[in-house]
Amino acid sequence: MASGVGFSGLASGLDTDLLIESLLTTKQKRVDNVKKTLDNVDEQKTALKDIKRVLSTLNKTAADLGSVILGNKDASSTDSDAFTATADSDASLASYDLEISNLAQKSVATVGNTVSSTSDSIGAGTLTMNLAGGDSFSLTLSNDSTILDLRDEINEQYGENLGASVIETSPGQFQLLVSTKEMGEDQNILASSSMSGFNTSFLGGGVTNTQAGENSEFTLDGISIIRETNEITDLIEGVTLNLKAETTGVESLAVTSNKEEIIKGLEEFAANYNDALKMIEKQSGSEGVLAGDSSLRSLKMELQNMISGSIPNISPFNVRDNGEMGYTAISQIGFKTDQRTGELSVDKEGLEEALTDNFTEVENLFKGGSLSTNPNVSFISNRGKGFSGTVVLDTLNNTATIDGQLHNLTRDGDVLSFAEGSPYEGMLFMASVADTHVTLEISQGLGSMLEEKTDAFVSFSGILNDRKGTLDEQEGRLNDRLISMKETVANERTRLTMVFAKAEQAISQLQGLQNSLNSL
Fold this sequence. Notes:
Blueprint: H1 16-23, H2 25-69, E1 73-77, E2 83-87, E3 94-102, E4 108-115, E5 121-130, E6 136-146, H3 147-158, E7 162-170, E8 173-180, E9 194-196, H4 200-203, E10 207-211, E11 216-220, E12 223-227, E13 231-232, E14 239-243, E15 251-257, H5 259-284, H6 294-308, E16 335-337, E17 344-346, H7 348-357, H8 359-367, E18 369-372, E19 377-381, E20 389-394, E21 399-402, E22 405-412, E23 415-418, E24 428-431, E25 438-443, H9 446-458, H10 463-518
Helix pairs in contact: 1-10, 2-5, 2-9, 2-10, 5-6, 6-9, 7-8
């Protein structure tokens, strides 16, 4: 009869996997927390990358403001059939009188008599081409050569200087032509050019100049100019002239500001500024992954102040002839700032009017500059110091006074610089005369201001790279910790699995014992 013996506690059929996972919950939560932290670090790195991208674009645009964007020039001709011109940012705004009397041309010569077939043998021989400038080109062909062989040999050996071709002058008559690649009198093919050894029928034609190499001849503002080409790049700085035909009189060339391209460039600048502002707000605002980042919030505020405020020390540069003050801020030339978002918009009509009426003032706003009371003393470099203000130099005693403070300068030839460690280190002056009192007015200009400020964030040694480096180190430590914690969880799971396996085995044995007892 059954005795009723039993065991309490563990029982067969228990979900040990679920129990193990429950026992590992605390450790697994720690692993999950590290994963969340890693995800957050990755989000921060992505945010920094996005900010660097838009700031780098703004940095590039800011660097281009003075020279490239405002430097857009247009060159126009009063007779585009006679000449055209292009101008780059190095060109000065000016007009010129131009009269073309002769165009440059290459030299062309026929070689030998015509042949009735391009496969006819012209025999073996030597061809020598002499140019007026002293260059000479010679080649020799073997027996059974054709006019095509001679053409190909000229092009293969002297293709940089000469060009050979075969033309059909009349039905069944083929002529070899040789022309110079360059133009000008020095390229003229001389009568001393010779042929020898070829078949008599071919040889009799000799080398005959059919077009002389000539220089271009023209006057610029009454000054006679001669060049060996019709593309003139070395006459007016920043201007390329393309001569196309002789003129019947004096024509005009005008270099002007390309307002359409300038406005496009300034609109692009405004768009890039807005992109930077929005990205900073998105990532460092209250909902951003970089929320509360003081350096980014400070950057946004400084950028907005630069855009909305007056350009530091611009007044000495933009005083008009009548004594009135000209533009001192971009808000006066068609740029408008949204009071809520701080974003920029451009009034194209207002900007075009400012560019038309006072281009130099607009240029000064973005480009800045320097003024000196002595033409032999000048400011030559800021080297990223971002200085705007007044400097009084004593080039006899090598000192500078700024805001009432006297600073000693170091002289190297005609170059004066501040001593190492000075807050103005990097500022350079050129002084070729001794003068105890030279006043210099310096304005950095908005372009340089924005470039310097954004450069502090996007340069190789900038704030964003430093921040990324810190996150990389944190990510490395977290990954190491995560690996260790995962190993700990895995080891604990293995241990618990073994414990429960032994428990199941023991239960099975106990159940067998119970069954035996119950059967007594």
